[in-house]
Amino acid sequence: MSTTADASAPSAVAPPSEAPRSDARALFAVCAATLLVLMNYTAPVAVLPQTARSLGAGLTTQTWLINAITLGLAATLLVAGSLGDDFGRRRIFRSGLALLAVSTVGAAVAPDAATFVAARVVQGAASAAILAAGLGLLGHAFHTAQGRAHATARWASMLGAGIAIGPLASALLTAVGSWRWLYLVVAALAALLAAFGGRLLAESRAARAARIDVPGVLTLGAGLALLLVAVTAGRTGWLRPAVLIPAVLGVLLLAAFVAIEARGRAPMLDLALFRRPDFRLATLGAFFTGLAALGPSTVLPTLVQSLVGVSALGAAGLAFLWAGASFLVSNQMRHLGTRHTPTRQLTVGFALTAIGYLAMLGYADAHSWARTVPGLLISGAGSGLLNAALARLAVASVPADRVAMGSGANNTARYVGSALGVAASITVASSLLPAGHHGGFSAHGADAVLLLGTLTAVLGAVAALARRRVPAPVPAA
């Protein structure tokens, strides 16, 4: 196994008394950028109706207004992690911040839905560089189990904080001005972090020749895009050519991606990592987290606005409850993380997610947003456990010179699951309409979304429990 041997690593150049300060600076820079990424990621959630009206977007296009950034993330996270390991994690991290600033200005001034969607896809690619390289930088900076548990829990708490702040800030700025204002704020902050945040970080890279896996990038990106197109188009029927053709082509391209990675000399995903039980658990757990926790929760504010009649600010407040609970629990795991195995955290996290969804059933029929509050707090706490466990597993389940690749694989699985979860949730919510009604959402559809989330959360818990039955590998002498 090769290890990182970069002379610029803080552990190699800093005296012991300075190492904790250097680690703290790295943690601050990475957490600030992660918070910004998630604020931008969730910006449209509470103001989707207003954004759609401004851009002239129909119901199907609204799915893309939310999912475009997720597509960019899912398609480029693996390559961003691989590039970070090979060309320098700080370099990729700062490049991602610069690209986020530029693309976010594009979203702010977009004249139509197509331009906005294109800008959000580029934002996703920028966010992928920040997330994959950022978590890789933390994996390089913190070496002990306790240090990594502390750092990754802090990082995971920023996911919840960003999800909490993004919709609320977007709704507030929309109320006093325009939904476009938040993107200008994000662009300015990203530019500042790109300019000055790099000074807080030490460069690190793997000790191997750097190559770009172009065939892998193309087949993975195109395959995921076609699958997402198929799931989104399924809203009006699953057996139509518009659904079946992209679905089949997407599966074929993803199979080609696996074949390319298996034979490539410098793959962006080392398939040998899947021989590690913890890596398999991290990847599968991340996929179910996106599918079960992120997908339905992302759509919920729009459903509450449409079916219960709350304002954009009220919907943002509900999202804040869910994400606030996630933030508090993830942050607390920096003290408790090493006392509980990631497997146990994942199992409990999925169980709480399922319980929270069941507690919200019937809110639309009752026309009561208050019915969602207990369930939001419970499922949000479950999301916090999932985020903390997955961040810890992402860096601990791979060799030291593959930490950004591990982060890329983990977050790819998470956002592929999220993209599919959002598309499936909107499809389900808009397909179960009463006779004679066309367009929009229904109360039955809202309950079906919660039941779908419950089922996928239970499957995630089962997958985590199955890992507990696998004996841990015996360390080599």
TrEMBL record:
Instruction: Supply the CDD domains for this chain.
Output: MFS_MMR_MDR_like
Q: Which PROSITE patterns match?
A: MFS
User: What is any one of the record's Gene Ontology cellular component terms?
Assistant: plasma membrane
Q: Where are the transmembrane segments?
A: 26-44, 64-84, 96-119, 125-143, 155-175, 181-202, 214-233, 239-260, 281-300, 306-325, 346-364, 376-395, 415-436, 448-466
**Cell compartment(s), UniProt:** Cell membrane
User: Which SUPFAM superfamilies did the record assign?
Assistant: MFS general substrate transporter (SSF103473)
Q: Does the keyword Membrane apply?
A: yes
Kindly list the GO molecular function terms attached to this UniProt entry: transmembrane transporter activity
Q: What is its main location?
A: membrane
> Domain Major facilitator superfamily (MFS) profile: where?
26-471
What keywords are annotated for this sequence in UniProt? Membrane, Transmembrane, Transmembrane helix
How does it sit in the bilayer? Multi-pass membrane protein
Family matches, as InterPro entries: MFS (IPR011701), MFS_dom (IPR020846), MFS_trans_sf (IPR036259)
Domain of life the protein comes from: Bacteria
Descriptive protein name: MFS transporter
Biological source species: Micromonospora costi
